[in-house]
Amino acid sequence: QLQLVESGGGLVQPGGSLRLSCAASGFTWDTYAIGWFRQVPGKEREGVSCTALDTGTTYYADSVKGRFTISTDNANKTSYLQMNNLEPDDTGEYYCAAKHPAVVYNMCVRRSVDFWGKGTRVTVSS
């Protein structure tokens, strides 16, 4: 059974950094795309960054380009989202997701996802 477990959320001041982790199990890792999404109450879930595990093709939302970096540890089936220079608008629930086949644009922009984690909360506030 496929599982995605996020960790690393918390409270951080504007300008600070956090690194989110997503531990995956139960599927053939390198045939999927892994993505990070975020959601605030009253808004649709937004694709922040997605990456195809076989090709390395990566997508970033315009709002996070230059500040967030997605990476993967393929040996340990773990994805990371390094978030730097955080802003109050980055506040939200962050979800890890998996998609097969690994079509990054569809996953992140059209929210085409097969599996979701349960989320980890990020609050950016002074």
Question: How is this structure best described in words?
Answer:
With 126 residues, this protein is mainly β. It has one helix at 104-109, and strands at 3-7, 10-12, 18-25, 33-39, 46-52, 58-60, 68-73, 78-83, 92-99, 115-116, 120-124. The strands form 2 sheets. Strands 2, 4, 5, 6, 9, 10 and 11 form a 7-stranded mixed β-sheet that branches. Strands 1-3-8-7 form a 4-stranded antiparallel β-sheet, with no helix packed on it. The radius of gyration is 13 Å and the shape is globular.
Briefly, what is this?
It is globular and about 40 Å long.
Helical residues, percent: under 10%
Number of helices: 1
Number of strands: 11
Query: Percent of residues in beta strands?
Result: over 45%
Distance between the termini: 40 Å
Summarize the biggest pleated sheet. 7 strands, mixed
Low-confidence stretches: none
Q: Rg from C-alpha positions?
A: 13 Å
Q: Which secondary-structure class do the elements indicate?
A: mainly beta
Strand-and-helix sequence, N→C?
Answer: EEEEEEEEEHEE
| Mean residue pLDDT | 95
Overall morphology? globular
Features:
seven-stranded mixed sheet, four-stranded antiparallel sheet, 5% helix, mainly beta, single chain, globular
SSE diagram, text form:
Elements: E1 3-7, E2 10-12, E3 18-25, E4 33-39, E5 46-52, E6 58-60, E7 68-73, E8 78-83, E9 92-99, H1 104-109, E10 115-116, E11 120-124
Parallel strand pairs: 2-11
Antiparallel strand pairs: 1-3, 3-8, 4-5, 4-9, 5-6, 7-8, 9-10, 9-11
